[in-house]
Amino acid sequence: MEKELVVKSNKLIEASFMLSINEQRMILLAITHVRRNKALDANMQFVVSVQDMVSLFGLEPKNAYRDLEIAAKKLFNRYITIDAPDPDFPKLKYTTTRWISSIGYIPDEGRVVLMFAQKIVPYLSLLESQFTKYKLVFIAKMTSSYAIRLYELLVQWRSIGKREVSIDWLKQQFQIEDKYKAVKDLKKDVIEIAITQINTHSDLTVSYTQRKTGRVVTHFTFAFSPKTAVESKPRARKKPPQGETICGVLKADIERLARAGESYEQAAARIKQQELI
Q: Any bridge partners for residue 203, and if so which?
């Protein structure tokens, strides 16, 4: 699973849409099955199974069949609005389309069979420029659909490591214009949950600040970078012999108070310093 890639046109990443977490997972799994060396036909069918959802996303097996069927029923009615969709028609402001043209559920086998809508196909197939790709495993453990959306918007600018977006634009793309009238609520219920999940589960470390226009907060600025090896896998500490003290601090206290990634010497020095304050 770790080798499977999600590859999307940037137009698709920056489009306006709302999907539940399981609907997102179904779409992303189907996208990983698109062959990059062959044009995608709108009549091609893609299969998403309960086994995929359980093994990759950690769904509870006893609920997975029900969750897959619910998501399948709702996904057909979901739509997406793509801004400036056609360079041959620059006056065309946007295109609104369904994600999929058909979907069916095989209950005994726990499988969904779907076909992408014709207008979606060009944004998934034979992409030569202006596209973003990432490993599916980096969003697999996220439980917030906003976390996945924000991750995609950031990884799109991976080479820069910084992205500023207006709050109005972000709410429009997430289709939450009528929600979170107060910025503090948007931050608490959307942004901070998303950043926590990105920092916990993905390959990025993210922080953010806000910018005002006059007295009103109008923009979020996200700074992000790839996680280091130390961040992704803390180094194991070498344990001192029983009864030994390090820098005058008892071993038992060090083991109890040491932080993730600290050596025993680092932990002992910090503990001793705190005792002196």
A: none
46 and 152 both lie in a single domain: no
**204/263 same-domain check:** no
| Residue type, position 240, single letter | P
Rg (CA), the chain: 23
Which stretches of the chain are DSSP H helices?
10-13, 21-32, 50-57, 61-75, 145-155, 167-173, 183-186, 192-201, 229-232, 251-257, 264-276
Q: Are residues 7 and 130 in the same domain?
A: yes
Joined together, the tokens standing for residue 265 give: 């010497």
Half-sphere exposure of 45 (CA within 13 A, CB side): 9
117, 30 contact by CB (below 8 A)? no
Amino acid at site 63: N
pLDDT in tens, 197-218: 999 999 999 999 999 999 999 9
224 three-state secondary structure: strand
Report the C-alpha gap between 178 and 2 in whole angstroms. 37
Do residue 60 and residue 113 come from a single domain? yes
Total domains, the chain: 3
Strand duo 216-226 + 162-166: pairing? antiparallel
Between the CA of residue 177 and those of 186, 225, 229, what are the distances in Å?
11, 29, 39
Is the overall model pTM greater than 0.85, yes or no?
A: no
Do 169 and 270 sit in the same domain of this protein? no
Two structure tokens written together for 54: 């359980």
Domain containing residue 179: 143-233
DSSP letter, residue 160: T
| CA pair distance 203, 254, nearest whole angstrom | 30
Low-confidence ranges of the chain (pLDDT < 50): 1-2, 230, 232, 234-235, 276-277
Cα separation, 165 vs 200, in Å, equals 23
